[in-house]
Structure formats: C-alpha cells, structure tokens
UniProtKB/TrEMBL annotation, chain B:
One of its GO terms (biological process) is L-alanine transport. Belongs to the binding-protein-dependent transport system permease family. LivHM subfamily. Keywords: Amino-acid transport, Cell inner membrane, Cell membrane, Membrane, Transmembrane, Transmembrane helix, Transport. This is Branched-chain amino acid ABC transporter permease. The chain crosses the membrane at residues 6-33, 63-82, 94-116, 136-160, 189-212, 267-285. InterPro entries: ABC_transp_permease, BCAA_transport_permease. One of its GO terms (molecular function) is L-valine transmembrane transporter activity.
Length: 239, 294
C-alpha cells in the first residue's frame, strides 16, 4: 500500500522555481530516501509534503486522500510529522516541554506511557529533561527532535538531513534509530547528503537534481548504479 | 514618606506591568509592536466609566465588561488589521505596524465621538477608604490594584508554563514554523494571543481609572509609549522583563515626582531607560542574540 504519493509538484520561492515537477511514492513500512546535491530541492520537497510551503501545481496524496494545500498542523493530525533540517528544537523550552509539544494534538491515555518509553529509549534526554533545549549538543538535539516527532505517533515520519553536522559515531547512532523506527512500523522518508549510509538502510531511493527526479530505484540497485557511484558515492563519501 | 512613595510606585508600576505584558505577548508571537494597545487600554477604562458612573453598577461588573469589550476589539484588530497582511508576498514588514497605528487613531477618534473630549471621573465605592500605619497612609484601592495585578501576573505565568495552550503560545513565539509542524494551529494561537493581550489592556484600563479617578481619550497614547519603553527595557517579548520593567518605571516616576521636579516626570523615566539600555542593550532579561525567524 502506498502511504504517500506525490505527483508533479512545482514549488516556487517568489519567482524562483525550486521544484519542477517532482513525483515520488512511499510504500508502507519502508524507508525511502531522497538524495541530491545542495540546492537540488530536497528540503523544499520535504517542506512541501509537510505543508510548510504550498505547491503551485501537483498533488500530494496521503493514504489515498488528497492532502494538497493542508496546513502543517492538519497534516500532523492525519499522521505526517517532519523533523526539519537544523532540528528546530525549541531552545527556550525544556527537553520535557519539547517532548510534550510533540504530543500536542494527542489526547489519548497512552501519552504518558509513550513519554516514558521515549525517555527509556533516549536515556540522555531523561538525564537532561529539565534542561533548556538550546543547551543540548547537536546529536542530543537530533535525538530530541526525532523523539519529539515520534510522540505524535506519525504514520509517516519525514526526516530532513538527520545526520547533518554530527560526528560519525552519532551519525551511526542516528541511522540505527531510523532503522528501529521502521522496524516498529513507521514509514520513513529521509533526505540525506550522506548517500552511502542512507542507501544502506533504505528500501528505495530518489535522486533529485535542480528540482527534478533524475534517477530512482531500489536502494540496493542505486548503490551499484555507476551514475550514483560517480556522483554521490565516489571518493566524496569516504571522507 | 519614602515608604509611602514606594507603595505609590509599586501600585503604578504594577499597572504598567500589566499594560507591558499585553505588548510583550503580541510582540513575542507576531514580532510586531501593537500601537493600538494603548487605545484598547483606554477603551477599557471608558467601559469602566460607563459601567460604574453611567449605569451605576459595581466595580467587578466594570472588569467583566471591560474584558469583554477589549477582547472583542482585540479580535477585530487581529482579524481585520493584522491577518490580511500576514504571509502575503510583497507586504513590507512595517505594514502591520502602520496598520495598528491606523487602528489606534481610529479608536481615539471614536472615543472622542462616543465619550467626548476631556476628563471623565471614575467612580468607585472605596476610592477614599484608607488607613494609617504610623505616619504612612495606605489607600485600600492601592492594595486592590496591587493584588489584582499580582494575581493576574501569577495566573499568566502559570498558564504559560504549565498549560497546553500556554506552551503552544511559547512555541509559536519561539518559532512559528516549528510550532506548526508539531501540530499547533498557529493562526488560532495568534488570535488567542491578541485577544488575551487586549483583555489585559482592558483590565489595566480599569485599574488606572481606579488609581487616578480620571479617564480621557488621550491617555492611550502616553500609556502605549510607556508600555513600549518597558518592553524594550525588559527585553522584547520577555514576560519577566515586562513585569520587572513595569515596576522599575512606576517606581522611577513616582520617586522623581516626590524628590525631583514633577515637570520632568515622563522625560526622566525615559532617560533612565536610555541609560539602562546603554549598559544592557538587549534589555534586562533579553538574550544577547535575538533569535529571528529563519
């Protein structure tokens, strides 16, 4: 079953066209990754899916329902949560308050239990739960951002460059977490610069270039695709 | 004598703090200065005059009526003067400021028309009741004003730090986009903020009426400017800063009048603010680097 179906979206910043007809699909229970260089339109794609930017044309379907043009908070209600680029921690609020905000729309009785589970899964957050979000390190902030998004119990989790600016050990930890999220049944769409790591955990991949999808296919095929190897997995990824 | 002046200063300062809180909440969430806040405050004061003098109802009815009227004014301000300008391409960031200035002039003209120029007496049953401790005279009305202000500030602080809506307001103030992807309907929160801030202005209007026994259509402007000065002093968008700044300005004004030249009352208060800002440009409680919207 398709969780997400994006068809020919075109998004503009003023007169500048950032997306020139992007189409992609995300199957239930999979990890799908979007790769591409800086300025290819990866973040714009994520922001458009999450409702932060409205596409000029094209449609976005979520679980078979047309959700194009809905506000971000309405999409959270439907089951889409975004962990944006740069993590977007509420730096003036405590770690606990950040987590509370993750469950903002939920009124069910399991919020408390989910909070406990999250603190158990991320002991570092439990340790710092009364600290302001802005005082955490980059890796801790990323974990907080992911934990916060999970507390909304999304059906589709959007992760925008979760490994950006983090030390290699932390990056490995983040990818491990993404895998666990998938194994727990949440579908994941992840944008990454770190193509090799992303393709290793992903089931399917799309490559964006100047606002268009230029290549897509199964992740294990992309790992061997000479065009990808040359452009994204070559010497660059060894650094 | 000094103690008496301190009590006067704290009374005045607590009213200033309530006015400034209205400014700071709106600034925090919308990033704009609401120049109509002073006039909404003035309308609250006039509602108090109508209810207590014209209708002869008790003072608590005046509070209720002022809260309702100013909340409605706040809603209309947000709905018709601010929302249409928000998120539109090509709208100058100064446009909402000009828009609120327009509303402030409209409200002032309207109050001239409705209530007439000049001072209106503000009746209140316990205006003259006072007691003396040693050589100090304390009016009951001062205690009432102080208690109401403190309760209001405590309630607001509790609401902001503990409730779901309060946290959503803080999240929206920190970053609109982040709040929205967490599921906050930011448009609702913005409306709520402007309505709440305006109602606080209305309450402050009644408090000023009680404190000075006099209300006029021009009082909005000077109170508006003071409120603005206070939030700059306390740190823009900072709740604690608005409270502390209000008390500082109230005390400074009262002490200047008591021990200096009352003719320079307003000027010296503003000079004091300039001096403080030279030493601490970000305001008393402000952060060094302002966190702008990305």
């Amino acid at each position: 079953m398709k969780v997400l179906k994006v068809s020919g979206i075109e998004t503009f910043y003023g007169k500048i066209q950032a997306l020139k007809g992007v189409s992609l699909e995300v199957e239930q229970g999979k990890i799908v990754t979007i790769l591409g260089a800086n300025g290819a339109g990866k973040t714009t794609t994520m922001k458009t899916i999450a409702g932060l930017i409205k596409p000029k044309t094209g449609t976005i379907e979520f679980l078979g329902e047309n959700v194009t043009g809905l506000r971000p908070d309405q999409l959270v209600k439907k089951g889409i949560s975004l962990v944006p680029e740069g993590r977007a921690i509420l730096s003036g609020m405590t770690v606990m308050e950040n987590l509370d905000m993750g469950a903002y729309q939920r009124k069910d009785k399991e919020v408390e239990k989910d909070l406990e589970d999250v603190l158990k899964r991320f002991p570092i957050l439990k340790e710092r739960k009364n600290q302001l979000g802005g005082t955490l390190s980059g890796g801790q902030q990323q974990m907080l951002a992911i934990a916060r998004a999970l507390l909304a119990r999304p059906k589709l989790l959007l992760l925008d460059e979760p490994s950006m600016g983090l030390a290699p050990l932390i990056v490995a930890e983040i990818f491990k977490i993404i895998k666990e999220i998938k194994d727990a049944g949440t579908t994941v769409l992840v944008v990454e610069q770190n193509a090799k790591q992303a393709l290793k955990i992903a089931d399917y991949g799309y490559v964006l270039e100047t606002g268009k999808v230029i290549i897509h296919g199964k992740a294990k095929d992309l790992l061997e695709d000479p065009r990808i190897v040359e452009a994204y997995l070559g010497r660059k990824s060894e650094k | 004598m000094l103690l008496e002046q301190l009590i006067n200063g704290i009374t005045l300062g607590s009213i200033y703090a309530i006015v400034a809180l209205g400014f700071t909440l709106v600034f925090g969430v919308l990033g704009i200065i609401n120049m109509a806040h002073g006039e909404i405050f003035m309308f609250g004061a006039f509602v108090g005059v109508m209810v207590t003098s014209t209708l002869g109802w008790p003072i608590w009815m005046a509070f209720l009526a002022a809260i309702i009227v100013t909340a409605i004014l706040g809603y209309m301000l947000e709905r018709f003067a601010l929302r249409p300008l928000r998120g539109k391409k090509g709208v100058s960031h100064l446009a909402p400021l000009i828009s609120t200035i327009g509303v402030s002039i409209l409200l002032e003209n309207l109050s001239h028309h409705l209530f007439g120029a000049g001072n209106h007496p503000f009746k209140n049953a316990f205006a003259e009741i006072h007691f003396t401790i040693g050589s100090i005279t304390i009016y009951v009305v001062q205690i009432v004003i102080f208690v109401i202000s403190v309760v209001l500030m405590m309630a607001l602080s509790y609401w902001l730090s503990k409730t779901r809506a309060g946290k959503a307001l803080r999240a929206t103030a920190e970053n609109l986009d982040t709040a929205s992807i967490l599921g906050v309907n930011t448009r609702q929160i913005i409306t709520l903020t402007v309505v709440m801030a305006s109602a606080m202005g209305g309450i402050a209007g009644i408090l000023v009426g009680m404190a000075f026994n006099s209300v006029n259509p021009q009082m909005g402007l000077s109170m508006g400017l003071k409120g603005l000065a206070i939030i700059i002093l306390g740190g823009m968008g900072n709740v604690k800063g608005a409270m502390a700044g209000g008390l500082i300005l109230g005390l400074a004004e009262t002490l200047i009048v008591a021990y200096g030249d009352s003719g320079y009352r307003d000027a010296i208060a503003f000079l004091a603010i300039i001096v403080i800002l030279l030493i601490r440009p970000q305001g008393l409680f402000g952060q060094k680097t302002s966190e702008g919207r990305p």
